[in-house]
Write a structure and sequence with these properties.
The structure holds two protein chains of two kinds. By secondary structure, chain A is an all-beta fold. Chain A has no helices and nine strands. In chain A, the strands form two sheets. In chain A, strands 1, 3, 4, 7, 8 and 9 form a six-stranded mixed β-sheet that branches. Classes of the chains: A mainly beta, B mainly beta.
Chain lengths: 110, 130
């Protein structure tokens, strides 16, 4: 049972923008940094965003992250067919003393 | 470039013990939080637990009592043992390198903390079936 809630799916046409929300509470997103992962079909998760809005080297600036209060958002601009994947948010939950992930969002490029 | 390689039994019977090991190649073992994550078929990611180079462990509340994570720093390896498995433990198991720490103006037990995984294995499929 994930403690972070994401929409099950989002979609847009190639070249367009999508945003994925991740909702938590004060014990996780509200007081800690958020990360985002991309999981292409049949592969391991890949880190896209860490510390709310930082991109590891090699991640294009089409991917962006933000946080406000107890929610975080991943944005993908210039959508490409290669972006079709599942996306997960993650953070530390201070009450649980454990890492937590979001429920996951499937991105479809129309 | 650090790489992780994991291995372990892929087919278990109910009540048996799941054992997986992850080896760290090409990078330091110290300074990181070595993490286990699993993904049941068709479902999302689930954090299991982590260990650092000092042997300090933290486990998911849902698995405390059944899960043990250990490490052998001399071999740059860390391991997972999950007792009394059931069909609900059927999943792809990943090991990953984790980063954990506190941010500016940190308050103990409140935050802010950062925790993210930047290097992952391809995973091991574990099936529990009689």
């Amino acid at each position: 049972q994930s403690v972070l809630t994401q929409p099950p799916s989002v979609s847009a046409a190639p070249g367009q923008k999508v945003t994925i929300s991740c909702s938590g509470d004060s014990s996780n997103i509200g007081n800690n940094y958020v990360s985002w992962y991309q999981q292409l079909p049949g592969t391991a998760p890949k880190l896209l965003i860490f510390d709310n809005d930082k991109r590891p080297s090699g991640i294009p600036d089409r991917f962006s992250g933000s946080k406000s209060g107890t929610s975080a958002t991943l944005g993908i601009t210039g959508l490409q067919t290669g972006d079709e994947a599942d996306y997960y948010c993650g953070t530390w939950d201070t009450s649980l003393s454990a890492g937590v992930f979001g429920t996951g969002t499937e991105v479809t490029v129309l | 470039q650090v790489q992780l390689n994991q291995w372990g039994a892929g087919l278990l019977k109910p009540s048996e013990t799941l054992s997986l090991t992850c080896a760290v190649h090409g990078g330091s073992f110290s300074g990181y939080y070595w993490t286990w994550v699993r993904q049941p078929p068709g479902k999302g990611l689930e954090y299991l637990g982590r260990i650092n180079h000092s042997g300090d462990t933290m486990y998911s509340p849902s698995l405390r009592g059944r899960l043990t994570i250990s490490m052998d720093m001399s071999k740059n390896q860390f391991s997972l043992r999950l007792n009394s498995v059931t069909a609900a433990d059927t999943a792809v198991y990943f090991c990953a390198r984790g980063h954990y720490g506190s941010g500016p103006y940190y308050t103990p037990n409140v935050g802010p903390y950062y925790y993210y995984m930047d290097v992952w294995t391809t995973g091991t499929t574990v099936t529990v079936s009689s």
